[in-house]
Backbone:
C-alpha cells in the first residue's frame, strides 16, 4: 500500500535547548517543510519519564513547553502551514502507546541503549515510563502514519524499534487489517532522516560525549538562549588539540574535538566538511574559532532574539499549540478508530 508522505518529529521540553537539538533536528524540520506535510511536537509526555529534578516540575514544564514551541517558530517552522502542538493535548498518543506496549517484546526494549544510559546504575529506581519511552515514540509517529522522521543519530535505535512495532502490528493483525479494507499493511515503515555533517554534535568540553541538555557543565553546550557574548566565550574555550586543521576528512580521524567543530561549522554554513577543510586546512584553531564565532552569532543571534520575543507572548504560543492540537487530533482520532476496529475493541 502507498502511504501519504508525512513527516513527524518531536523535541522534549526538558530545558537547555542546544545547538545539537538545532542542527540535529530543528534545522532539518525547517528544511523539510517545502517538500512534506509536517507535524512537529513538543513531547511533554516523554519529558516526565525522567526524575522531576530533570524536567523541573509543574512550574517549569509549561515554561519549557512554550520555549521549545518558540524555538520551532523562531527557527522558521510555519505553524499555519504545518502542525505544531504539545503531545499531552492529543490523548491518542498515550492510547496507541498502550496497544504498542502489547505488541513490542520485552527483549526488544531490553536492548535500548538510551534506557541504559538514562537509567544509569540505579535501574530499579528508573520509571516504567522511561523503559516504555520507545513504544510511546513509536505511537507518536505512527498515530499520524508518518513516513519520514528527522532525528539526530542518538534516536536511530528507537526509530528501528518503531519500524519493528509497525511491522509486527501489520503481521499480527494482518487478516483483520485486510478485512477492514486497509490492504496488506495499516502502518507504514517510518524512515529515519539522519543526514548531514551534524547528526551527532558533541560536547564542547569532551569530544567523546554527546552535547546534551543534562550535562551539568553549561560550557559543554551552546544553548539557543545564549547571547552573542556567551556563544563567543563557549566557542573560544571549546576543547581542541594543538595541531592545525587538516586538509581532508581523514585528517580528522582520532581528533574528535576538531571533527566536532568542523562539523558544526559545516552545518551552520550549509557546506560539507570537505569544503570547510578546503577553506581552513592548515589554519590554527585561533583563526578557525574566530570564524566559527562570527558564523554562529550570525546564524543563532536572530533565533535567540525571536525566541525572546515569542516567549514573552505566552497567549500567542498557547494559541498555536491549541490550534495544532486540534488539527493533529483530527488525524490521530481517525487512526485510533481504525486501530480499535483492527484489534477488535467494541467502540461507539
Ligand atoms: N548532540 C546532539 N546532536 C545531534 N542531534 C541531537 N539531538 C539531541 N542531542 C543531539 C536530537 O534532538 C532531538 C530532540 O532531542 P530530545 O529533546 O528529544 O532529547 P534528547 O535526544 O534526549 O536530547 P539531549 O540533549 O540529549 O537530552 P538529555 O540530556 O536529556 O539526554 C532529537 O531528534 C535528537 O536526536
Residues:
Amino acid at each position: 500500500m502507498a502511504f501519504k508522505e508525512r513527516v513527524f518529529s518531536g523535541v522534549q521540553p526538558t530545558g537547555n535547548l542546544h545547538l545539537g537539538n538545532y542542527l540535529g533536528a530543528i534545522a532539518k524540520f525547517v528544511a523539510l517543510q517545502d517538500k512534506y506535510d509536517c507535524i512537529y511536537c513538543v513531547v511533554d509526555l516523554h519529558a516526565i519519564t525522567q526524575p522531576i529534578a530533570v524536567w523541573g516540575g509543574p512550574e517549569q514544564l509549561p515554561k519549557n513547553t512554550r520555549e521549545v514551541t518558540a524555538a520551532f517558530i523562531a527557527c522558521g517552522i510555519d505553524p499555519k502551514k504545518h502542525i505544531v502542538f504539545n503531545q499531552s493535548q492529543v490523548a491518542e498518543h498515550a492510547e496507541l502507546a498502550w496497544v504498542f506496549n502489547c505488541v513490542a517484546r520485552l527483549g526488544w526494549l531490553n536492548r535500548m541503549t538510551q534506557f541504559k544510559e538514562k537509567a544509569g546504575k540505579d535501574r530499579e529506581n528508573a520509571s516504567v515510563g522511561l523503559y516504555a519511552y520507545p513504544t510511546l515514540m513509536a505511537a507518536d509517529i505512527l498515530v499520524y502514519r508518518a513516513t519520514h522522521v528527522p532525528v539526530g543519530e542518538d534516536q536511530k535505535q528507537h526509530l528501528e524499534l518503531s519500524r519493528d512495532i509497525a511491522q509486527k502490528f501489520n503481521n499480527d493483525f494482518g487478516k483483520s487489517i485486510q478485512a477492514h479494507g486497509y490492504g496488506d499493511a495499516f502502518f507504514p515503515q517510518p524512515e529515519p532522516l539522519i543526514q548531514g555533517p551534524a547528526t551527532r554534535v558533541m560536547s564542547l568540553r569532551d569530544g567523546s560525549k554527546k552535547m546534551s541538555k543534562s550535562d551539568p557543565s553549561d560550557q559543554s553546550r551552546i544553548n539557543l538562549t545564549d547571547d552573542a557574548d556567551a556563544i563567543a566565550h563557549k566557542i573560544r574555550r571549546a576543547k581542541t588539540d594543538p595541531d592545525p586543521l587538516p586538509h581532508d576528512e581523514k585528517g580528522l580521524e582520532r581528533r574528535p574535538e576538531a571533527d566536532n567543530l568542523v562539523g558544526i561549522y559545516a552545518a551552520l554554513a550549509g557546506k560539507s566538511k570537505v569544503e570547510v577543510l578546503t577553506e581552513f586546512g592548515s589554519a590554527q584553531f585561533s583563526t578557525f574559532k574566530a570564524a566559527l564565532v562570527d558564523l554562529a552569532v550570525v546564524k543563532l543571534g536572530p533565533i535567540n532574539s525571536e525566541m525572546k520575543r515569542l516567549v514573552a507572548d505566552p497567549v500567542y504560543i498557547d494559541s498555536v499549540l491549541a490550534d495544532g492540537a486540534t488539527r493533529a487530533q483530527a488525524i490521530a482520532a481517525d487512526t485510533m478508530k481504525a486501530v480499535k476496529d483492527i484489534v477488535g475493541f467494541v467502540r461507539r
Notes: Residues 218-309 form a domain with the Tyrosyl-Transfer RNA Synthetase fold (CATH 1.10.240.10).
